[in-house]
Amino acid sequence: MSDTVIRAESLGKKYRIGALHKKHDTLRDSIASAFKRPNVQTRQCSTDNEFWALKDVSFEVKQGEVVGVIGRNGAGKSTLLKILSKITEPTAGRVELRGRVGSLLEVGTGFHPELTGRENIFLNGAILGMGRAEIRRRFDEMVAFAEVEKFIDTPVKHYSSGMYMRLAFAVAAHLEPEILLVDEVLSVGDALFQKKCLGKMSEVSRQGRTVIFVSHNMGAVSSLCTKGILLENGTLTATGEIEEVISRYLILNAGEIKQAWSGQAGDGHLSLLRTWIQPKDAQRTFHTSSPLEIGCEVYVHQKIHGLIAGFTLFSEYDYEIAYVVHDDDKLPPALEALPGTYTFKWVIPSNTLAAGMYRIEFDIGIHMDRRIIKQDGSLLFNLDNTDGLGRRYPLVNRKGWTSLFRPFWSVGS
Q: Is residue 45 in a domain?
């Protein structure tokens, strides 16, 4: 028997934008509609537009896989999960599901607001095809996970959005569906509960059940998922190992890799002329075992006291890894910078950063004015791992991280 639990073949979902759906709830409405001017009705229909939220999407998911579905807003992620949940029917194609499906697509999906938390648990269990004895067996565990013991006999319409979501997730995850579908609803909860949810989904996958997880949090997707599906404008752009799919997504959304920039951005005091990131080895390739040089060139228009230049390094998930700055107590002359061009350089030692994509954002400013000017000229580069020595970066934010970045500078006119 095949271990494929989800098979989508040429899925498509079409919506009509601007269509007017006539509703004749009463005899009066029907009679009034018959006397409308024909030209008005024609003009209304001409505004209809077809929009394909999904188009020709095909993929397979194996039993026990945790698959992350990623893409920009409007890419078709939620539409795909609604089709998999049987909430909506596809316009084209077909989908096959093997096993019971538990879904959490919106806060409180499937809950009746007038019923208590206890009643909604039994209602959802019945919808999933579970008997009362099976629901009772897991009841206490679900309530404890959701942390709503005091309010379990209160109508859920009085719950906060966080309480609503916690109970909905607990029901969806603990009633043992073979396939668990989770949309971007975990963002409603606090950080501690999000961690609990990710841990529960990981536990579900270890039990041989399948998880489909939609999120914009690339860190959560990377840590939880093994496979990935990338949607772009309703079409399937990439499938495969999750790190490869995430890298493809980041490249698509970040534009072209930019390892150097030149121009003139600034104000009447300072201008950023040039920025760059380049390897310092003979091969001139970006890999983990090569030291990297980061540099910027600043032009001072008039004498200032306390020139500051620095940059912020971001990971591929937009985590701030480090903020590095040159302050005026290190820059000769100590208290002032005369008009001219100043070049700043930093070196990242080899085998410091892990493989992945990074972004650099530069800052220049004047110390005495206590102001930092965010400048154009940000860079984007991808670091390959050729020998396995690149380590995972620490998450820090400290001024002057000289233990990692060896700074030096040159001053010229």
A: no
Residue 373 CA to residue 64 CA, distance in Å, equals: 50
Q: Which of 174, 207, 170 is nearest to 185 (CA)?
A: 170
Same domain? 121 vs 205: yes
What angle do the packed helices 117-127 and 132-146 form, to 10 degrees? 130
Q: Would you tell me how many other CB atoms lie within 10 Å of the CB of residue 285?
A: 12
| Distances, alpha carbon 158 to alpha carbons 111, 151, 152, in Å | 13, 9, 11
Return the percentage of the chain with pLDDT > 90, whole number: 19
Give the three-class secondary structure for 374. strand
Over 90: is that where the pLDDT of 56 sits? yes
Contact in structure between 198 and 191 (CB atoms under 8 Å): no
**Which is more confident, 28 or 102?**
102
Residues 305 and 161 occupy one common structural domain: no
- In this structure, the answer to whether residues 81 and 224 fall within a common structural domain is yes
CATH of the domain at 208: 3.40.50.300
Residues 66 and 209 in one domain: yes
Say if residues 300 and 365 touch (Cβ distance below 8 Å).
no
Parallel, antiparallel or unpaired: strands 210-214 and 179-182: parallel
The model's pLDDT over 112-142, given as tens digits with 9 standing for 90+, comes to 889 999 999 998 888 777 788 888 998 998 8
Does 11 share its domain with 105?
A: yes
* pTM score over 0.70: no
The rounded distance, in Å, linking the Cα atoms of 288 and 410 is 27
Residues 292 and 235 both lie in one domain: no
Task: Give yes or no: residues 156 and 302 share one domain.
Answer: no
Q: Give pLDDT tens digits for 239-296.
A: 999 888 887 887 776 555 677 777 766 667 788 888 999 887 655 567 787 888 999 8
Could you count the other beta carbons within 10 Å of the beta carbon of residue 148?
A: 21
- Structurally, the chain folds into a number of domains equal to 2
Query: Which domain range does residue 178 map to?
Result: 4-17+50-253
3-class secondary structure per residue, 101-150 = EEEECCCCCCCCCCCEHHHHHHHHHHHCCCCHHHHHHHHHHHHHHHCCHH
**Burial readout 50-64 (b: 16 or more C-beta within 10 A, e: otherwise):** eebbbbebebebebb
How much is the pLDDT for 386? 53
Least confident of 192-196, 320-324, 360-364: 192-196
Residues 6+ positions from 39 with CB-CB distance below 8 Å:
none
